[in-house]
Design brief:
- With 102 residues, the chain is mainly α.
- Helices cover 40% and strands 8% of the residues.
- The chain is built from three helices and two strands.
- A two-stranded parallel sheet has the order 1-2.
- The radius of gyration is 14 Å and the shape is globular.
């Protein structure tokens, strides 16, 4: 699943922008995985590709990675960290040039 759209929230950095978009995407990812499991397909490798390494650190470490201008980021964007910590998905780096939605 890949998605590209204009962001509806103003952010001051690319890291925040990427974090907001990942948090908007994850419910679709969860639904697709649950749907495929209900159809009898087991998803063993649920990968989220990210081209922003700062965002990747925030997704994996949560608030522990927030310093400076990012320390006030809204908690609602960190539910992704719980999914990653539970092993439901993982984040891998993918250069922007290879991102289909970009």
């Amino acid at each position: 699943y890949c998605k590209g759209e204009k962001q509806k929230i103003n952010t001051k950095s690319s890291t925040k922008s990427e974090l907001v978009e990942v948090s908007k995407y994850i419910p679709y990812n969860i639904w697709i995985v649950m749907f495929l499991n209900a159809q009898g397909y087991e998803i063993k490798n649920n990968v989220i590709y990210q081209d922003n390494k700062s965002t990747m650190k925030m997704l994996i470490n949560g608030r522990n990675s927030c310093t400076g201008n990012l320390r006030h980021i809204n908690v609602r964007y960190f539910f992704v960290k719980n999914r990653i910590a539970n092993g439901e998905m993982h984040v891998e780096y993918c250069p922007s040039i290879l991102m289909i939605a970009d």
